[in-house]
Glycerol-3-phosphate dehydrogenase [NAD(P)+]
Amino acid sequence: MTTSERPQKISVYGAGSWGTALALQLARNGLDVLLWGFDPKHIEACDKARENTAYLPGIPFPDNLRCTDSIDDLVQHSDDQLIVIPSHGFRDLLKQLKPKLNKSHTIVWATKGLEVGSGKLLHEVLIEELGDEIDYGLVSGPTFATEVAKGLPSAMTAAASTVALAERTAAAFQGGNYRVYTSDDVLGVELGGAVKNVLAIAAGISDGLGFGANARAAIITRGLAEIMRLADKMGAQNETIMGLSGVGDLVLTCTDNQSRNRRLGLALGEGKNIDVAIAEIGQAVEGAKTSHSIHLLADRAGVEMPISACVHKVIYENMAPEDAVKELLARELKPEF
Ligand SMILES: NC(=O)C1=CN([C@@H]2O[C@H](COP(=O)(O)OP(=O)(O)OC[C@H]3O[C@@H](n4cnc5c(N)ncnc54)[C@H](OP(=O)(O)O)[C@@H]3O)[C@@H](O)[C@H]2O)C=CC1
Ligand SMILES: O=C(CO)COP(=O)(O)O
């Protein structure tokens, strides 16, 4: 059974920018952190340099943050397993973990997205792979990796299938300049974090086309209405969407160029080819694939999400960004709510 006490050890999967930033925060809180990376050469380089030169240069690893390329090491190191890899690798990692886990393990993820191809929520993927007896949860909020890694003030939400795991997760992260709120609304936290990436692309497209602050504010507000419609239809809590993992993260990523999703939108609005733009960003841009997953999810739920649908058309149907804007502005007159 999970207790709500702060764990002493934790295993972190994903040595990209976010996995490393969270590992640093956990280590600063005194946890014994073991960090795993997908690419053995990269994790070896991190271990040798005692920093993640590729993703977060100049931020040294404390002694209680150690690296490994062995999943077995992580499973044995701690009951608390934290997954911070892009959504396209989520199911595969769970498949690898399944035969190694025992009843005391819990899984928390910090991945933002849906399963690529199926549009399934990550908690659905987790239950399909590991069954419904394991305690699970996620952390999400307006948190750029670099700022968290530098120890700048930040806040996020920890939602879990049990109150004890939400509290245990929050206790693991909370400390110094980091504040964490708990929630029992896993679905709402997942939806906010996934859809905001698509909307950040939309905001970037608008700015890349040279539109102004009015257009950006309209995208954020009407985008929020899209998340709320979907969340409401799927049974999430409205307040969650108004919280850190919803409106908080939406505003952050739609307005600041640290967001890779926003930067992809900027490049598309400026007329750049999508593959070139993603290669230049050189890190995970979840919103591109999530736009397709949201398209599937919204269809299944019977919910209209016009801004997200336009991002999908720009990315998957070659629609010109200018035409996407025309399509949005030509929609029929209707009440705001
Ligand atoms: N960065 C941020 O500020 C935040 C990110 N997130 C979320 O965190 C998740 C991870 O993103 P982030 O760390 O930023 O991305 P990065 O691009 O910085 O790093 C991704 C890491 O995952 C590795 N990777 C790639 N494919 C796989 C796979 N199939 N299985 C396992 N590992 C893989 C990459 O390895 P390699 O280097 O070898 O390609 C790299 O180490 C995303 O869902 C993102 O939305 C959430 C909040 C904030
Ligand atoms: O989720 C994030 C901040 O909360 C990071 O956003 P990007 O993935 O767009 O960089």
Remarks:
- The mean pLDDT is 97.
